[in-house]
Amino acid sequence: MNRNAAYRVKTDGFHGDLFCPVRDAYPGKALICFSGSDGRLELTRMLAAVFQAHGLTVLALAYVMEEGTARSVLPCPHRHVGGGGKAAA
Fold it and tell me: Are 31 and 59 in contact (CB under 8 A)?
């Protein structure tokens, strides 16, 4: 498969990166990794790549501190999180 994709709030309703493995060891399943409260997506992407290497589809999802998302954890609009789940399905 290996068709990684980037999603952005402006066009997709959420901010995240989809990591698709070459061989899907868990068809029909996906893991969602969230960024931390600091909003940095780098560690989340690194973690997603580890799971991807083991055959799992992973969505690295940011909900704060990225373009189009909230500037802090509170208040955080959850509509961005819901959109990410739909794309990973």
Answer: yes
Residues 6 or more apart whose Cβ sits within 8 Å of residue 24: 1, 55, 56, 57
Report the C-alpha gap between 38 and 63 in whole angstroms: 10
Tally of CB atoms within 10 A around 58: 26
Tens digit of each residue's pLDDT (9 = 90 or more) over 6-46: 887 678 877 888 999 999 999 999 999 988 777 678 889 99
Which residues are within 8 A (CB) of 21 and not within 5 positions of it... i.e. 6 or more apart? 1, 2, 52, 53, 54, 55, 56, 57
For tokens 């955080």, what's the residue?
Answer: 76
- Tokens 């992973």 sit on residue: 58
